[in-house]
Structure formats: C-alpha cells, structure tokens
Amino acid sequence: MSIPSFLKLVEIQTKIASVFPFIIGMLFAVYQYDLFNWENTLIFFGSMLIFDLTTTAINNYMDYRKATNNHDYDYRTTSNVIGQERISEKTVIITIFVMFLIATGLGVWLVVETDLLVLLVGFVCFCIGILYTFGPVPLSRMPLGEIFSGVTMGFGIVFLAIYVNAYDAGIANLIWSGEWVTVKINIIEVIRIAVVSLPCIFTIANIMLANNICDLEEDIRNHRYTLPYYISKKYAVILFNTLYYASFAAIIVSVIIGFLSPIMLVTLIAIIPVFKNLQKFNAEQVKAKTFVISIKNFVVMNSAIVVCLAASLIFKYI
C-alpha cells in the first residue's frame, strides 16, 4: 500500500477534529491544574490518533461493503481506493487490525502510567468508536451520530487529555479493591471540563451534521437514515447554525462563572468569519461546495480557543 493510498483510506485531512480537542485539553490541564506530564501526553496522543485512523478506515471499509448503489456511492470520495483495487480488501483488513493493536497497546501503557479510570473512559470511547462504524446498524447510519461523535471526541478527548496530566488532582478516580470497584467523581471539576469542552462538542457534531445534510438524498437511496432525514433539511440547517452560536455562548458562560480567563472573550471575534461562512451554507447545501464550511468554522473557532488559552497561560504565569 502506498502512503498516498493509506492517507486517503484513513482520511488524514479529517484528523484535525481530534487534534484540536487534544490541544485544548492539554492547555487547560496546565491552566487549571498547573500539571503537565509529557510522557503521558505523548502516549495518549499516539493512541488517540491511531485509534481515530482505525475507526475511519473501518467506516470506509464498511461503507464500501454495504453500498447498495455503486453508481451513487463512489466510497464517499474514498471508495475508489478499494473500488479500483489500488488497495486490496485483504490489505485494508490487515491495516485495520495492525492499527487497532497499536492503539490498544498504547492505551494499556497509558493505564499503567495513570489509573483504571483511563481504562474505563477509554473503553467507553472505544465501544462508541467501533459501534459508530460497525455492526448491523452503525451509529453513523442513525440519527444519533452527531451526539456520539460530538460527545466522544469533543468531551472524551478533552477529558482524557486533561486527566492523563492531572489524574492525581482530584478530578475523579477508580479504585478496584478485592470484590469492590469504587468510582469517585468531583462533580464540580467534571462540570468544569464539560462546559469548557462544549465548543468542541458542538463544532465536531456540526461536521457530521453538515455531511449528513449535504448527503441527505444519497443517504436515503442507500438506506442510511440520519438526523436530517428525521427533522428535515430545513431544521437540520437551523440546528447547524444554532450549535455555532451555542459554542460562543458556552465560552461567555465559562468566563462568567470563572471556569476560563476573561481573555477567552477575545474568541468572540471569530463570530465574524463564522457568520459569513454560515450565510454561504444557508444559501446552498452542496457537498462539493459548502460542506467544507463546517471544517473552516471548526478550525476558526478552535484555533481562537487554543490561542486564547495559550495567552491565558502566559498572563497567569507573568
């Protein structure tokens, strides 16, 4: 398998959706808890990224196998990697298993370095990631895809990126003693992390929502009934807009209640490009033309958050 074919199979350009939550969680761990463990951070990043590549490869392979209309399908821009046999199915399956084993090995290593809560949260994210693409009715083919993708990546990655650095800071822990398994959670800290991660949750959910809006007619032909099918394209577009404005509202709330520095209000400048992009998406929902708007808005918003979090750290330690 050539490198270009592999990168196309795993849709490397979409991995930015994992990287930003990771960076935000890492920065927040330093900002809020004054803790940073470079070894755990690197292990987690490797495990997270490789697992993301694995689930994408599984998703593309399963879509290829389940396609009912080859003329319409075309592997969702990556089907030709297998469809034209530039990569054999056997090679794809072997690649998936190798990546899965590497990601799992790194995850086990991380559990050894931290504690069992990482195993629990990681296992939940793992199950969602697999069920998202695998099984008789994958989550991606149901009206739940936006929720699971947003929460798993937007909250799950942020939480784990924080926890692997601050696992002994009183956020939560899992203790296995004899026949007893005890889970202790600091509700305030978990709520703090959840609120801070809301922009990630919403903007990641919107990437999938935009994809499903643009692919609505094709999905129906392929018996794939996603959220826009149930609430209609009109209300799906309204939801798409609402989630961006809710992201900005979450930042304002986080500053007001003291979860984030007032410096974070500078991120509100991002409303201008986000609003302009939304006008283009509202005018037409065409995959080749306007789906990229969800990616652009994701990058704009989360870049602003990363820059302002970094600035908050600088001012904190001056």
TrEMBL record:
Major place of residence: membrane
Sections of the chain in a coiled coil: none
Signal peptide location: none
CDD domains: PT_UbiA_UBIAD1 (cd13962)
UniProt name for this protein: 1,4-dihydroxy-2-naphthoate octaprenyltransferase
InterPro entries registered for this protein in UniProt: UbiA_prenyltransferase, UbiA_sf, UBIAD1
NCBIfam families cross-referenced by the UniProt entry: PRK06080.1-4 (NF004752), PRK13387.1 (NF009926)
UniProtKB keywords: Membrane, Menaquinone biosynthesis, Transferase, Transmembrane, Transmembrane helix
Transmembrane segment boundaries: 12-31, 43-62, 92-110, 116-135, 147-167, 187-214, 259-278, 298-315
Subcellular location: Membrane
GO molecular function per UniProt: prenyltransferase activity
Xref: Pfam families: UbiA
Membrane association type: Multi-pass membrane protein
GO cellular component labels: membrane
Pathway connected to this protein: Quinol/quinone metabolism; menaquinone biosynthesis
One of the GO biological process terms: vitamin K biosynthetic process
